[in-house]
Predict the structure.
Amino acid sequence: MSEELILAIETSCDETSAAVVRSGKEICSNIVSSQIDVHERFGGVVPEIASRKHVETITRIIEAAIAQSGYTANDLSAIAVTEGPGLVGALLVGNVAAKGLALALNIPLIATHHIAGHIYASRLEHEMRFPALALVVSGGHTELVLLPKEGVFQIIGRTRDDAVGEAYDKVARALKLPYPGGPHIDRLAHEAAAEIELPRAWLEQDSYDFSFSGLKSAVLAVINQHRMKGLELDEAALAKGFQQSVIDVLVTKALRAAKQYGVEQLILCGGVAANRGLRQALALACEKDKLQLIVPSPKLCTDNAAMIGAAAYIKFKHGQFAGLDMKADPGLSLEKWSIETLA
Amino acid sequence: MNKQATLLAVDTSTATMAGAIMSGDKLLASVQTESERNHSIHIMTNIETMLKASKLDVNELDGIIAGIGPGSYTGVRIAVTAAKTLAWTCRKPLIGVSSLAALAFSGVFVEKQQLDHAVVLPIMDARRGQVYTAAFEINAASAQSRRLHQDHIVLMEQWCQLWEVQLAELKARGVSCIAIFGDVALHADAISSLEQTAAQYGIAVLAAAHAMSGRALAELGQGQWLEERIMPTEPHELVPNYAQLTEAEVKQNAKEREEG
């Protein structure tokens, strides 16, 4: 069980990526072609353009991933691909390419969950221990996922409206910051001398769910009030107030859940895990609670195919393969993707 | 590519999943099913089934042919992605063929008896009164066919008017029929108007839905029908022909022009 090579493909949004991963742990190659410069002028990802770019680059990216791995296509043990969630047109390109490879090379196909990928990206750099808790934060997701054992996922909290990354993008747009806005708000918040305090949405007392649309509205209200009164707005202070509210809720709920479920590790993952403020606050809180915190490197937090290869390896070990008639599922359930259902 | 080459052809630009495997002039297997929205599910199992029926391994193919559109955006990406991935993985020559040419010759294939000297217009509905279309002239006597118009998108009404003003010229050239194949039901009004005018010149208008045929696509890829030289493409280079920019680009371009 040491030389299994999985070629993984990820095209769920605006990155075309392919990777070769050995035994679910070791990255042999991880090629990521970002389309960010293409979507920038539209202020966000345009699904049709993302799909067009995927078709243009997909075989080049696969070729580069295999070449850089030092192996050949004939050395591969399986093909893994993101089945969902994501943009359906974008997912389809990766899906069809993966099926073509599986047919041509006559090797198994593994349908992989994008969020399972974000979580198991941890395994590419760290030893994972169970039970664990994952805080998944990205442009499309905000979830607290309990991992009772390897390959089993239980969502204990999720956003009821905007994802964290979405809230960041909307606030950034209101402050006229360039796309994508997350890093700019993070930077402004760090530079801020003052803070405009904003409300926290705690929801019901025992809930692990999140809500960020109210916070976004509060930010817009502050901007409008200043504009109407003709006052100059301290944008950095507002960015800090927004970021502090987000971080406070995320950290508090994650630590409370970690305690309740007695987990060995807390995993922070997803594109927003690159946020400095969030990483620092979570590190401090975990140190206080003597809880091990795992955060993948920034390049493994954003969408990439190596993480898909890491998650797919669990399915590989259990012989859970997909047929050539697999279907991309933009709303794929993480819990149902588990290797076994919880009793 | 030699005459006896064994070729796999696939097209998913329309509601029809069309595929064929041909060895020279011989059809080994084919598929023609209606499965709009589900092309991505069935494409690889259909290819697998055709290979099995032909008693071939994918590596035994001599080349792969894909319909590159225009047509459904998502649809054309499926056949193009499937074909380029297979061609790249198996190191096979890859040929991209216009899906409109394939649609035109799918109709010609069925209506051969009716068509002596004809202009063939394949049409695929592109919404808001528009069609993706092209034009071909076929002449049974000289056994030749040539392309008159490139693949493009146009208002169906305008497209029919363009042919109305050329009727005298077509008549003089010996054209006896204008054949329109594809989404004809959706554009019945424009077609019937052309039909009435054409009748005055003694030119018949034949409108029929004829679904995309994998065999027609394969034979086009083999270079049997069109004079155009179709050369193999490097797999990485094969991209769909959408015939138009995305809506987001059109809007953004207009906005940026306005803002100067």
In short: Chain A is about 45% helix and 15% strand. The two ends of chain A are 29 Å apart (CA to CA).
